[in-house]
């Protein structure tokens, strides 16, 4: 057993942390979000070319640094510390992860473009009726000639307004909630028949509703692997948002601690009041456990599917509950100023809140854990 | 002791229902259904209807324009207005400064201000908190110095709700820097159109403009606009805070909120069933109802005590704590129910904006409402302060 990072991993973290410290202060982030694009494309370009770190989780044969889930964890944690709105999760963790797992000509063609910063991927998996069930799909991919024809509506696709590609879950057969027939496709985001309704999200991202109307896609857009592959990449994504939560909640806790030392009421810093001391001690405990569960789940991503799912679910459930606690108490301890747009703390709280539900709520994950590991009734 | 309404009370309930059905402004109902932002005039439209009927201030003494209703009638009234999803009237005049004026004010102040609070002619705001004085309100530094028949007021207030619409504000100001903190504060009524008053918006997490900073620079306030004695404003403030706390329980509105959660959870699908049939979700809703019922009967006991002549005491802190926590849990469940559609930030709520919402209608305000409602455990004396009050005043610790 070894909980130490390698020198390369330390270097990756330091490189990214230094870059973000220089480029991603709170005011700059606000300006990016307020701009027409909703982001600064220069940041993504710099991550790809100047820092060359979008290659971190890819194998050396694919032009990467030979890393994997731990490298994604490090990246996401640092991105979380500045509540970055970069499409790393969607493009590298999810899109890159699907391509890595599926392999083949499409992977060989697209992975270098991800590493080079030329490809941005939106993950179109959610549907209005589906909640967190990945197999609950009404979007269809019907075999036609050599390729497929896509029809359907995908909900709340983060990063879609910026995307060059979409990673789409669609049904090639089977009933609406059947595991069989759920498949993954990587397609050009601008094919005829795709329409988008773009909007900002409450946590500062840009996202879209996506409608497919008789969209012809080539046969090689299909990434074979079915629901098992979809579940695997979503588990990887789930651990990535847990890692992001590590960064977000650490900042929530630190920010609250700092504030409690500065803010004077009743002739003393509010951090002197025992009730707030205990609260901040509890916030610290929860933030630490988020870190622990993130490591646990990330290190178990390689286990056989059912063990992996059980570990990821336990991790995400804990992270959701703890992020809720840390976020709410950070705002409460700040008082009114915590609810304004002026201070960063509220924006961290918003992201922490959205992480709670992303890829499954605490209830959903606890249920999946129970179903996988407890005796059936 | 019993829980049945008498025939007279049932008749009153029917009268209230009919009145609301026939008189609630249709335009306002439409905007609420669409989730539109409400304007000053929207808020006032319902106020004016109630004023015309004589029902705008049920809690006021009859001499000043109250209804003379019993505690049970007032309970029925708040139940029925919440059931019909009527907007809450702005509390700053009707439930805050109004009672202060009829309790502590001069005959001239009563004659001048009370009728205009009732009619809605004056929109009021509350100048209490300052950037350096939140929970520790008595440390406030806004200074009022006597100059002939005027006070000259300088300072900064914050979290001033709806000050952007206000005609008048009631302010706590320091008139004596030598006395103990609480003993050097006065309660002033300030015309918001006075030279030197500047209102600046504060935008909150959901993107709303509800609260403001209010800057006071050499604002001249006639001494006749001071309520109660000089340096004794803290008495008014304490009286008002206790009043604010009972209203703050918001039981009827939370009941309506629970019903909304249930209807949302019935229309959200969770696999092959509605979300409300998901055992984890429905248990959370049931626990919410449990706590809300406990709050309701605690409030009823408090109201019964008031009817028997006991003023709202420090026990009202309990209502504030539990009421605010329940309000927050409702918004939390609404956001959870919204699922993926909690994430879109839909800006199309402006007047005349016809853009259709993203996903189901109820989902679009779920996250902003959740964020915004974090305020309830902070405002009106934070819940930490309320617990201090209970510890000191009720438990004698």
Portion in strands of chain B: 5-15%
The end-to-end distance of chain A, rounded to whole angstroms, is: 36 Å
- Mean pLDDT of chain B, as a whole number? 92
**Biggest β-sheet description of chain B:** 4 strands, mixed
In which range does the helix fraction of chain B lie? Answer: 40-55%
Strand order of the largest sheet of chain A: 1-4-5-8
Strand content of the residues of chain A, in percent? Answer: 15-25%
How many strand segments of chain B?
10
Number of H- or I-type helical stretches of chain A: 11
The strand line-up of the biggest sheet of chain B is 1-4-5-8
Global shape of chain A: globular
Average pLDDT value of chain A? Answer: 97
Name the overall outline of chain B: globular
Total of helices of chain B: 12
Could you tell me how far the N terminus lies from the C terminus of chain B, measured between alpha carbons in angstroms? 33 Å
As residue ranges, the low-confidence spans of chain A are none
Strand/helix succession of chain B: HHHHHHEEEEEEEEHHEEHHHH
Radius of gyration of chain B: 22 Å
Helix fraction of chain A, binned, reads 40-55%
């Amino acid at each position: 057993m070894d909980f130490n990072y390698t020198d390369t991993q330390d270097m990756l973290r330091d490189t990214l942390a230094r870059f973000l410290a220089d480029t991603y202060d709170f005011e700059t982030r606000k300006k990016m979000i307020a701009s027409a694009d909703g982001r600064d494309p220069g940041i993504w370009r710099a991550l790809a070319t100047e820092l060359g770190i979008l290659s971190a989780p890819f194998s050396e044969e694919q032009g990467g640094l030979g890393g994997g889930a731990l490298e994604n964890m490090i990246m996401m944690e640092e991105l979380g510390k500045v509540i970055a709105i970069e499409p790393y999760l969607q493009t590298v963790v999810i899109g890159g992860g699907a391509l890595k797992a599926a392999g083949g000509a499409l992977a060989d063609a697209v992975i270098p473009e991800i590493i080079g910063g030329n490809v941005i991927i939106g993950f179109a998996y959610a549907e209005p009726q589906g909640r967190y069930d990945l197999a609950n799909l009404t979007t269809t991919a019907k075999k036609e000639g050599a390729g497929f024809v896509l029809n359907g509506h995908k909900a709340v696709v983060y990063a879609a307004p910026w995307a060059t590609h979409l990673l789409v879950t669609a049904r090639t057969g089977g009933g609406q909630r059947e595991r069989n027939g759920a498949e993954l496709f990587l397609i050009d985001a601008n094919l005829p028949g795709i329409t988008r309704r773009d909007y900002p999200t409450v946590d500062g991202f840009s996202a879209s509703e996506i409608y497919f109307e008789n969209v012809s896609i080539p046969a090689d857009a299909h990434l074979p692997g079915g629901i098992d592959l979809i579940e695997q990449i979503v588990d990887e994504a789930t651990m990535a948002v847990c890692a992001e939560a590590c960064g977000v909640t650490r900042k929530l806790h630190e920010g609250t601690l700092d504030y409690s030392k500065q803010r004077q009421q009743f002739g003393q810093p509010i951090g002197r009041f025992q009730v707030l001391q205990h609260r901040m001690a509890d916030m610290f405990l929860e933030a630490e456990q988020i870190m622990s569960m993130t490591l646990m789940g990330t290190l178990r991503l390689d286990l056989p599917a059912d063990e992996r799912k059980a570990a990821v679910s336990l991790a995400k459930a804990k992270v959701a509950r703890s992020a809720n606690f840390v976020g709410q108490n950070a705002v409460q301890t700040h008082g009114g100023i915590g609810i304004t747009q002026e201070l960063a703390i509220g924006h961290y709280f918003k992201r922490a809140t959205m992480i709670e539900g992303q890829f499954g709520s605490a209830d959903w994950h606890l249920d999946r854990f129970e179903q996988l590991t407890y005796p059936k009734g | 002791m019993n829980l049945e309404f008498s025939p007279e009370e049932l008749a009153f309930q029917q009268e209230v229902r009919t009145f609301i059905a026939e008189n609630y402004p249709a335009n306002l109902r439409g905007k609420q259904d669409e989730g539109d932002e409400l304007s000053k005039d929207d808020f006032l439209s319902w106020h004016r209807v109630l004023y015309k009927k004589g029902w705008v201030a049920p809690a006021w003494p009859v001499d000043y324009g109250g209804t003379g209703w019993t505690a049970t009638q007032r309970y029925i009234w708040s139940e029925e207005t919440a059931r019909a999803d009527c907007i809450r009237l702005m509390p700053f005049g009707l439930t805050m400064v109004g009672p202060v004026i009829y309790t502590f004010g001069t005959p001239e102040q009563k004659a001048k201000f009370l009728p205009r609070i009732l009619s809605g002619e004056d929109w009021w705001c509350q100048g209490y908190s300052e950037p350096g004085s939140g929970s520790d309100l008595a440390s406030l530094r806004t200074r009022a110095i006597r100059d002939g028949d005027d006070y000259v007021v300088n300072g900064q207030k914050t979290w001033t709700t709806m000050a952007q619409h206000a005609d008048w504000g009631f302010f706590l100001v320091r008139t004596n820097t030598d006395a103990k903190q609480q003993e050097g504060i006065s309660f002033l009524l300030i015309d918001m159109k006075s030279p030197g008053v500047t209102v600046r918006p504060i935008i909150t997490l959901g993107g709303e403009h509800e609260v403001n900073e209010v800057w006071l620079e050499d604002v001249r306030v006639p001494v006749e606009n001071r309520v109660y004695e000089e340096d004794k404003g803290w008495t008014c403030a304490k009286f008002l805070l206790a009043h604010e706390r009972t209203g703050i329980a918001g039981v009827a509105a939370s009941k309506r909120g629970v019903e909304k959660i249930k209807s949302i959870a019935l229309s959200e699908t969770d696999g092959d069933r509605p979300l409300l049939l998901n055992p984890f979700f429905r248990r959370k809703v049931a626990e919410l109802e449990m706590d809300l019922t406990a709050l309701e009967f605690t409030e009823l006991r408090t109201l019964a005590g008031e009817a028997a002549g006991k003023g709202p005491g420090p026990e009202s802190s309990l209502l504030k704590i539990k009421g605010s926590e329940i309000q927050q849990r409702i918004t939390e469940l609404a956001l959870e129910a919204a699922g993926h559609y909690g994430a879109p930030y839909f800006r199309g709520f402006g007047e005349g904006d016809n853009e259709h919402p993203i996903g189901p209608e109820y989902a679009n305000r779920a996250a902003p409402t959740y964020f915004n409602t974090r305020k309830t455990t902070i405002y009106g004396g934070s819940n930490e302060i309320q617990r201090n009050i209970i510890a000191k005043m009720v438990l004698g610790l």
